[in-house]
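Moderator note: this is an archived Q&A kept for reference. The question asked for a predicted structure of one protein chain; the sequence and the answer are reproduced below.
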Amino acid sequence: MTATPAPVRVPPGPDTPVIPAHRIAGGYTGPIARYAAAPAWPLIPMNANPGVTHSTIHWPTFPDPFREEMRLAAWTLLNGELPAVFLRERHPTWRSRQAPKALCQTIGTWCRLAVWLTDRGITTLSDCTTQVLSEYGRHLRDSGAVRITVHSVLSWLTRLWVFDQLSGRPSGVGRPPWETEGVDDYLPPATPGGENAAEAIAEQTMGPLLVWAIRTVEEFSDDILSAWAEHNRLHAQAAGNSATPASRAALRAFMDRIDADQLPIPTTQWLGRTTIAGAYIAAHSGASLSQVYSATRNHGWRQAALDRPGPCPLRVQVTGKLGGLPWRETVDYTEAGFLMRQLGTACFIVIVYLTGMRPGEAAGLRSGCCPDPEPNSTGRHLITSTVYKTARDEDGNHRSEGEVRDAPWVAIAPVVNAIRVLERMVPQGQLLFDHHAHDLRGTRAGTGSLTVHTLGTRVEDFITWANHEAAARGLAHEVIPPDPHGRIGTERFRRSLAWHIARRPGGLVALAIQYGHLRTFVATGYAARSRDGIHDLLDVETARATIDTVADLNAALEDGLGISGPAARRAIKAAATAPQYTGTVITARQARRILANPRLAVYDNPHTLLMCVYKRDKALCHRGLKDTPSLDQCVPACANIARTDQHATSLRRRATTLAQQAGHVPGPLGERLRDNAARLRDLADAHHRTHISLQDGTA
């Protein structure tokens, strides 16, 4: 039970009002302590989301003349709430209280306003009139920031005006002009934002990255986990060894054997320097750590180690394969922790990419979140998770501790495997990305998971490690090339999943069939719920793919392209609608409208060298049972098929390739390849005999 919060006084005057400290953003009931003296207010107790970076308000960054006025306004913001009468006139997205991250952003916006005012000789909020705020609003509009950012900043400045009026000592800041004149004159032109603005990860990058992530989870994980367990055993043994004459003698014998044969000395890298692997030597010799460091110094091993650096192999059997061969001869004591870091990152990549889960939601997963289905059942693996972004309390305010999502995620096999590996890394019931389990060199204070920012950094490190492994084994085709749009980060996985599902009927080579399953799972899992899911994002990507297809077709038809097939004229009519959509920003609502338009149901299928102009009652891929085609099950005799000159050229090119292959294989297989080549040429010939042009289609 939550105790009734104590009242908080704002110093320094006796006339300062007493205002109760309300619960802020999920569970925080304590007062803001040391209001006058603290140079910063940490917001850590206010945020229960385990995957976020906690923020701090740094008061020294505020100009001196405004600091105390802003402190009072910030205190009122933290402890108060917007009145219901004010909210009734606002958009439904306005809340009486803000989430912790938004609170810091709001107060940071006030700081930037104070700096701007100081630069203009204004030193008190009472002189920040409506006219001054109008100038500042135009300054924001012309600053180069995108529309959504400027709109948020203006709303945070509105909160300054409202909470100043709610304060016990109002400063008299002016009413923002956008409250009376409307906000449009203070906003730049609209641009796409949010998830839809993130670039999908390029196929040539995502394919190898996914291969390496799945390989690390499914092929290398047993070796890495065993090596880490052995590393910890040796480390504990070294720490527990006592200094005795017998242990000193054993250490001397260990060192003499190495010196007699001039063998490499077990070493490690510390702060960029080669140094003695003290714990490894202590564990294998039985000596104490102090004896090891003393003996190696007295006998000149520290210098000798620079000339004869050696490995620290663990007695762990390596079972993982890479290219049909063991991926390691042995796992080294000094790399066990590093490999554990790569394993955790690989699990993260597999989970977020193959579910569509937001990174913060993945960071909040706990051991036991994906139980096995009941024996002898046909049920799927489902992931119960906590959603943070849209979690609201009964008053509509953000709950930083999140809420259990009412539609579980569907997990395909690679995701289940990744979760099982993580469950071996953390205690039962703990966060799968608990920082105590994943920060192996030393953990930060407090509880929670690795932050989303940290996970983004580790994704880049994983790519570097995978490329090093590929280069060391001469696997040039396994290298992960740089993405044309820069860092992978974490937010782009979700958009990339939607892109690949919507635009690649067969998916990537690495998971060709899984994409077909995943598309079905996503559609089924979100049929009754689009809030906070990937369903809207998938709709947007599918609509974009549709518009791109009809736009490309329209441009080709304008250039005289020929088109054939039962659906050729319908394709021409669909292409004629392309100009009205070209260059527009597609929102989720617009995407649903586009997908519901039967005239725009045009899907290019590069794998089967045809175009589907979908009409449900004519479909043979699933006998007209669905509103969208199954592009991985195209039937050549379907009445929805159309082919262009480009498809015909590709048919001939593929026929030539098959004919060449036929000359290098045994008789029956060669005949089959030649028959397929002849069939493809017949399809290309039929296209050229029957194709029509744009003028023919419109006539």
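Archived answer notes: The longest strand covers residues 265-270.
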